[in-house]
Amino acid sequence: MAVVPPPTANDRSPADAAGATPATEGGELSAHGARGLPPTVAWDGDAVVLLDQRALPGLVRFERVTSASSMCTAIRTMVVRGAPALGVAGAFGVALAVRAGEDPARAAARLEATRPTAINLARGARRALSAADPLAEALAMVAEDVERNRRIGDLGAALLPDSARIVTHCNAGALACAGYGTALGVVRSAHRSGRSPSVWVRETRPVLQGSRLTAWELGRLGIPATLIVDSAAGALMAAGEVDCCVVGADRVAANGDVANKVGTYELAVLARHHGVPFLVAAPVDTIDLECPDGAAIPIEQRDPDEVRRTAGHDTAPRGTAVWNPAFDVTPASLVDAIVTERGVARPPYPGALAALCGGDPARP
Question: Which domains does the chain have, with CATH numbers?
Answer without folding.
Answer: 2-146 (1.20.120.420), 160-356 (3.40.50.10470)
